[in-house]
Amino acid sequence: MELQAGMEPRDAAPHAPLPSDEPVVRVRGLVSRFGTQVVHDGLSFEVRRNEIMGVVGGSGAGKSVLLHTILGLREPQAGTVEVFGRDIRELSPAERLAMARAYGVTFQSGALVSSLSVAENIQLPLREAYTLLESVLDDLVQLNLSLVGLAPDVAGKYPAQLSGGMVKRAALARALSLEPKLLFLDEPTSGLDPISAADFDALLLYLHGELKLTVVMITHDLDSLFRTCDRVSVIVDGRMVTDTLPGLLKSTNPWIHEYFHGPRARAAEQAAALAPEAPRG
Amino acid sequence: MDALALHRDGESWRIDLQGDWSLAALPQIDLQLERLPGPMSGTLVCDWSRVEHPGIGTVWALLTRLSEVGGAQGLVVRHEGDPPHTVPLLQKLHLELCTAHGTRAVAVPTEEGFVENLGRWTVLQGTEAGRLLGFFGRIAAVLGGGFRRPSALRFSSVVRHVQETGVSAIPIVSLIAFLISVVVAYLGAQQLAKFGATIFVVDLVTIAVLREMGVLLTAIIVAGRSGSAFAAEIGVMQLNEEIDALRAMGMNPIELLVVPRVLGLIIALPCLTIIADAMGLAGGGLLCLVQLHIPPAQFIVRLREALSPTTFWAGLVKAPVFALLISMVGAYRGMQVRDSARELGRLTTMAVVQSIFLVILADAFFAVLFEQIDF
Description:
The structure holds 2 protein chains of 2 kinds. By secondary structure, chain A is of the alpha/beta class. Chain A has 10 helices and 10 strands. Chain A has helices spanning 63-70, 93-102, 118-129, 134-147, 164-176, 194-211, 222-228, 245-249, 254-261, 263-274; strands spanning 25-34, 37-47, 52-57, 78-83, 86-87, 103-106, 182-186, 214-218, 231-236, 239-243. In chain A, the strands form 2 sheets. In chain A, strands 6-7-8-3-9-10 form a 6-stranded mixed beta sheet, with helices on both faces. In chain A, a hairpin with a 2-residue loop joins strand 1 (25-34) and strand 2. At the A-B interface, helix 4 of A face strand 2, helix 1, helix 2, helix 3 and helix 13 of B.
């Protein structure tokens, strides 16, 4: 072993180690208001390490607002948000940047930069964070495309040339490029055909298992909920009800009951019960 | 500290991996991987027991490099000492990628000669001109249809565009016309004073403002203000598929979006020109009063002598033509936006540059035409 003096590790791992029972995301007493309209009224929310947490709620219940608040894109009226055990409002700009690099996010419409190719989109966060050789960047693009199950020749295409399912996968590849431990997905299967959506669910389960990811997923896709989520949080009347799916199925809250006992929910539940363990998509 | 150390042990190899193997360390790790001696055969053992924070990209780089140096020789790689849980997955992905690689076709870029480029450019400009003419035709068709069915001309929408492109541009147009004519009058006064002919400053200012500067300045300001707005508005609608939606609902986007803008600007630009003319004359008059001590009464008498009956109209008649050019180019470029935000910016820029160019070109044509017909 050769020891060279003065060679410090470049920077510490972006995600500080946490005690394993500590929640990765913890929201307490969150109040969000738009004018007189109260969206969150003392909402509390916790995501445990290495689980897939589904977030559901009616249209306008504040799912995306919650996501934006956790990401620090929106200042809440009251309450605290902790990610990796740190209050996001107490972070310095540099710490905030390190935090943003420690999680990956995909947005509803993909939000790939439309004037950059898929490869450049995936390289974008890498280039910002590290100084890497072009050949290394190309290797990493291939790696991330392989991880999400896209063919290597997708790298040179532009977002407008991709199908809806490919856009979602490319967005996931970009979100994975900085090797996050925590992933936020906003409606990852919306607008996909059932086959692509099921493939995406399988991909998510596969990545969750292989990369030990913690996933927070906003979704309206009942099939997705039943197939992938360990626990589900429901936003009702500005507050959060979190439970496992069997627990929520027994809930007496009228909205939750309606949500999980409607005709679509029953069909999805049966389909999930019948489906064999999903192979990789 | 080196991230890896290679040892040879008879027929087999051993790599001791150590230290930080997170993504942040990838540049150093990659450099050290490059230094691995090429072709290796036999067996290779990777010892992971002293690695901290193993990432994904770093493991990938190691696997890629090992297959480069040993793949052809059938190097057998074993991972020992608590390898990262991602190793089997990445090995599998890498294998898939290697087998897929053989079928990848690489496009060979061809050298393009000057003549070829010129030809391409000519054809492109030709088709472009044809398309613009077609666009003009479609606008004309809607306008023509408006005679039979006036509701097709969307009166309220036209009024809104007169408000946005005309009324709200009054302050900036007035200010610029006023200032520029002060500058022209000042320069003229300095030069004409050498001949003792300062009274001709009035001729210079009034003819310049009424025939050329009033309308040209207004057109250029409006091209910057509204030509870009047209291109951007219609371009964003194009990006959001709003225009496709209109078409699908059986509505004509030309009638709904383009014609109101064209009509609005054709109404607004002559009005703005009249205001610019008035402000320009006021600026000239003010400078004459302050600098040359020509009182307003005398300024007006001289102004009447200097102007022929057609001078004012020679400027104003150009305004609707300029308005048509600006609004058409803006809307046309907006309609061309496809796919990306960069296209939107490029075409908006193009709309402004081309409409200003076309306005000045048309102005030159008018100058020659008026000279020939003695207008």
